[in-house]
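Contributing: when you submit paired examples, paste them exactly as shown. First protein:
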Amino acid sequence: MNQIERIEYMEKILDDSNEVADKLFSALEEYEALREKYRELITYYSGDEWMKDFDADEAGNLPEDLKRGILSEDAVYDLLAKNRMINIKMLELVTDNVKNS
């Protein structure tokens, strides 16, 4: 690779890195802003109110057109698993960045 190609190549890496870093920072801010509501969801899911709502759904006492993904036993569990994978990925990336920066 000649000098011009190298500079253009590195410039592309710089531009792409800045674009992705901006998107990641924005996504992390959104993620952080939602944390309190996420904790509220987990409290609901692990408490008596969720069980009452689940039982009411099972008994057919809720409107049929009501969106009820929250009453699926898998939906919140899947979110918990996804959140755990995100946290592990962030730790791995941060650890690698600290070690190699």
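Second protein:
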Amino acid sequence: MSKPIVAIVGRPNVGKSTLFNQIGKKQMSIVDDMPGVTRDRIYMDANWLNHEFTMIDTGGIEIESEDKILNSMRAQAKIAIDEADVILFVVDGRAGLTSADEEVAKILRNANKPVIVAVNKIDSTQLDMNVFEFYNVGLGDPIGISASNALGLGDLLDAVTAAFPKVEEDTRDEDEIRIAVIGRPNVGKSSLVNAMLGEERVIVSDIPGTTRDAIDTQFIKDGIKFTLIDTAGMRRKNKIDEPVERYSVIRSLRAIDRADVVLMLIEAPVGVTEQDKKIAGYAHESGKGCVIVVNKWDIFPDKHDRSTNRFTDDLREQIGFLQYAPVLYASALTGQRVNRVTELVKFVAEQQSMRIQTSVLNELIRDAISVNPPPTKKGKQLKILFMTQADICPPRFIIFVNEPDLFHFSYLRFIENQLRERYGFEGTPLKFIIRKRKEEEDN
């Protein structure tokens, strides 16, 4: 199931981005500290009291005139109305209620979506009375906060999470594999979907942004049921000029959340871009299996002089956090190697679901330690006492140690490499939880 989406809207300079960053800094869900993961500031995954959700920052509006303020606000509010599960309407408690606030509120009142009013910049008791003015917008009880000082965020997040829709029961087939096709606009996502299906079920166009919504298509191959989610192309934040483009970004993030395995499309003649890293980074952080498809290989100018091995080496260097993902060189237009896509997806799905017995894991730990002893810090040595697998999809491991602070990232990478070398786990990220455990408890 996809996580609820919270869209933060409001006129300029009310503190939307400050609130966005403050919630993310204080309440972010599990963060992968692996170097090379690029995070796009338009979204951030967060967690409050076991409620996971995705925040969308609709800030950064350029203003030149009053009319443009109103037009921009209408556009931003429409995005929230169209796609968000909860709308967080941020206003400035110091400045008071403005005509621009009223314009946004007028649109939100007609929306069939929960709206929470956050009265920002209430950073002293003398300003508490300013909150009451915002009852006039007619959107329920306003909540006074100070985003910069992290005041009132608990009450605010309680109200936000209480408004989340009830989780619907997932009626999907247990053996079904859901595939999200992701990538920048115009890399050939819809063409790949059509090539895989063998028929024109999705509109194909060379105009970026044609696929506005995520389109689900089910098919069966070799007795396995697959669901293809053709996501709208994501483009860099400063290139998102139309509201519909930003709307497509939100839809794409939701599609990744719903998928088991993602097909990360790279355009061969262009190579890896910064936006490719951002898109892949979200899939990686979300724990999704991944297959990198280098599309348009048929028109790659150096394909005879430059081997696929060299291209792969460059790709691995630029997207370092996807070292585990298999790479397929294909052409959706000509059908080159398209028949291998579902084979790789099935393989990655199996790797995601792999479980390793605890006794076997601890044997691996003993072997790893004998080859490369744990590091020491200020005369104290890290001791790995126990390791067990807690979950699958993605595989998640808990490692009990004497002092978690001694567990350097490089040594965790070593343990991960040992796991992959012995058991594969190709195409899937591995998650680790480091916990402190007294040595006597292990004896």
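If you have annotations for the second protein, write them as plain sentences, like these:
Confidence is low (pLDDT under 50) at residues 26-41, 60-65, 205-212, 233-246.
The radius of gyration is 24 Å.
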